[in-house]
Amino acid sequence: MDKAAEDQLNWLAQNPLASVISDGLSVLSTRRDALELPNPGTFENISAELTKGVLLSNMQFTGLRADIAKIFGVAPLFQVSHSFAMGLGGPGAATPYTFSALYGANKVFLQANIDNEGQLSARSNYRWSPKMVTRSNVQVASGSSQAMLQLEHDYTGKDFSASIKAFNPTLLDGGLTGIFILQYLQSVTKSLSLGLEALWQRQSMVTSPEALISYGAKYQGAGWVGSVGLQAAGALQLTYWRKLSERVEAGVESSLKVMPTGLNSIAADGVTTIGAKYDFRQSSLRAQVDTSGKLGVLLERRVAPMVTLTFSGEMDHYKSTAKVGLAVSIENASEDISEQQQAAASTQQIPF
């Protein structure tokens, strides 16, 4: 680098304006650290204590299912599994057979599934540092030209979390198309955190791009968590979760959607769900009921150290329909592997 260019760089770094900005950022960082704000988690898990910990969400199933897994190693983790399913067909139904394999280490996680219809799905996670993780997910259907690619990068700060996602991004159509999502959640106080989600999408170059912004807030008290979410499409979601005792959790979720139906009219649709979870010594029971007339139950019981039975039931009182599912999960591992699994549970940090 010649002397003139070096002098220009020194001027940019040492001019009064740069010094003021640098000092201001340093003071702001010092005061921010003095607040000792905790990390609030991710924006998409703003109500995870209820939606993933208590409510059934996507855990219910119908028909019969059997999962048989063989664990070959723990550090690093390596296992294969065979899944068999039989029941009602339709969209979202499980395929009769699926083969899965996964590998996990401290920085890498790899998983691939292929079913009897030739549909392949694979995902990989890589931890660059304790704060940064990159994830990818690919799905390819046999005999179809359509495929799905998802890319995601997460950053976990001391008092905030940020992530960026891309679904089927491409420049081959003469411009940028796909779906892009930016999420950010910041701790404001030790109990309150605020965040937003910005979405930009363009299906093809012949369509106009769309942009949407959603907002979220989370408040964590002593043994309870409340959250509120406002989506750009006009949906409002309220959740409340509380730990009643060491083994009992309960919560309520209310969602309201408001959509215009004409020039001077709107339509509103809302559902409220109440759920509870009770952990027994060898089993776990979840139950929920909502205002649409649906009652759901999920019971998981470990009948042996490597065998788990799961019962799923749902009854729709308004439609007079019922769904029932029964599953058995069997893990096969040697005694040495089982001992290593217990020892590595607290030391190994796989980026799932």
TrEMBL record:
Cellular localisation: Mitochondrion outer membrane
Q: Main localisation, per the record?
A: mitochondrion
Entries under Pfam families matching the protein: Porin_3 (PF01459)
The record describes its membrane topology as: Multi-pass membrane protein
One cellular component term (GO) for this entry is: mitochondrial outer membrane translocase complex
GO molecular function terms listed in the Swiss-Prot or TrEMBL record: protein transmembrane transporter activity
What are the entry keywords? Membrane, Mitochondrion, Mitochondrion outer membrane, Protein transport, Transmembrane, Transmembrane beta strand, Transport
The answer to keyword rRNA-binding applying to this record is no
One example of a Gene Ontology biological process annotation: protein import into mitochondrial matrix
Tell me which CDD domains the record gives.
Porin3_Tom40
Q: Which PANTHER family match?
A: MITOCHONDRIAL IMPORT RECEPTOR SUBUNIT TOM40
Indicate the family of this protein: Belongs to the Tom40 family.
Q: What is this protein called?
A: Mitochondrial import receptor subunit tom40
